[in-house]
Specification:
alpha+beta, Aminopeptidase, four-stranded antiparallel beta sheet, binds coenzyme A
Amino acid sequence: MTSDGTGARTALRLRPLRADDEGAFRHGHEVMAAEDFIFGLGYEPGMDWSRYLGFLDDARRGVNLPDRLVPSTFLVADVAGTLVGRASIRHELNDFLWREGGHIGYAVLPPYRRRGYATEILRQSLVLARAVGVGRTLVTCDDDNAGSATVIERCGGELDSVIETGPGKPPKRRYWIS
Ligand SMILES: CC(C)(COP(=O)(O)OP(=O)(O)OC[C@H]1O[C@@H](n2cnc3c(N)ncnc32)[C@H](O)[C@@H]1OP(=O)(O)O)[C@@H](O)C(=O)NCCC(=O)NCCS
């Protein structure tokens, strides 16, 4: 991998989940749960896989969604057939997303970090966000998440505000990317 991220750029593809991803995805979900991070949005361990794929398809099309969810595209990051991370692209903002969640969320699984993958996931997600009609893109991270803040700034994020999110929780950094 080159230090300018060229390797990540050529190798990483964002794509929808497939029928044969269940084992790798379930493992990623469990690993990230140990870090208190939700890898599979709306995913419950043991859930029927085709039902989950159906839920993601509905979420992308904005049908059958509970009130708290906006239409969103969920993609995994694939490097030469290995699932290394994921992205969630929200097509619009509700109050919570406007304040704290932003348009795009992402994660890279622990063994694959510090290779430029999160930067590449966000870079590709920004293009996809524009394709579903998002203009200026809000991306947020915890104030103490130095890695994510660097990723957002490398993708052109301009810091708008740092807001309190509640007792015992770190403040949130809110960035806009034009
Ligand atoms: C934060 C996270 C997405 C970074 O993923 P990554 O693939 O390691 O990020 P990149 O390799 O693109 O890192 C880009 C830069 O960020 C900085 N960085 C990354 N991780 C860092 C860390 N733990 N501490 C300090 N700086 C860090 C580095 O400057 C890095 O560049 P360098 O390796 O050339 O020095 C990943 O650690 C993760 O998934 N964490 C848990 C979930 C999460 O926090 N998601 C984001 C929610 S907003």
